[in-house]
Design a protein that fits this description.
Rna Polymerase Sigma Factor, Chain: A, Arc Repressor Mutant, subunit A, mainly alpha, 7 helices, 177 residues
Length: 177
């Protein structure tokens, strides 16, 4: 039984000005990496962010307007927004205290690390216990719970300046402990 003829594929314009050709895209990889490093990305995150930039560019290729900007400036804008999003994500994520070389927290810390962490927590606890109650509340709420100093000061009947001063004194005392 004869099969139906294959439909003709639409002609794709692969002119020299097409920025989506693989060899043209490879020319921009180094530019994007350097742009990300210039924005502050480092280490292994540069490779991940570079890939994310090209994924976003591929998804948004329909909105690229060559008459408004060059392909490189469009990629730079995407790189900047990808990096900012990455930074916001890092600020929301809790920071691991003991990292392995690949950046992952060790789920089974060594006994020595466990003891050192316990000793450090004891020292901090003793230093916090020795503080004036108002200083302790200002520090814990502003520095540890990340509450705005304005609200903490208002709740305790302090000026913002006095609250900042108390946080500074507590940090100095904790460094000394």
């Amino acid at each position: 039984m004869p099969s139906a003829p294959e439909p003709a594929s639409p002609a794709v314009d692969r002119s020299a000005s097409d920025p989506w050709q693989a060899d043209r895209l490879r020319q921009h990889v180094l530019f994007v990496r350097n742009a990300l490093r210039g924005l502050g990305a480092g280490g292994a995150e540069v490779a991940d962010l570079t890939q994310e930039v090209f994924l976003v560019a591929h998804r948004r290729r329909a909105v690229f307007q060559p008459e408004r900007s060059s392909f490189r400036s469009w990629l730079y804008g995407i790189a900047r927004r990808v990096f900012w999003t990455h930074c916001r994500t890092l600020r929301r994520r809790p920071v691991a205290t003991e990292l392995e070389p690949d950046g992952v927290r060790d789920p089974h810390p060594s006994p020595e690390a466990h003891v050192l962490e316990g000793e450090a927590l004891e020292r901090i606890g003793r230093a916090l216990d020795a503080l004036d109650p108002t200083n302790r509340v200002v520090f814990v709420r502003s520095a540890l719970y990340d509450e705005p100093i304005r609200g903490v000061a208002a709740d305790l009947g302090l000026t913002e300046r006095a609250a900042y001063s108390r946080v500074h004194r507590v940090r100095s005392a904790l460094r000394a402990a």
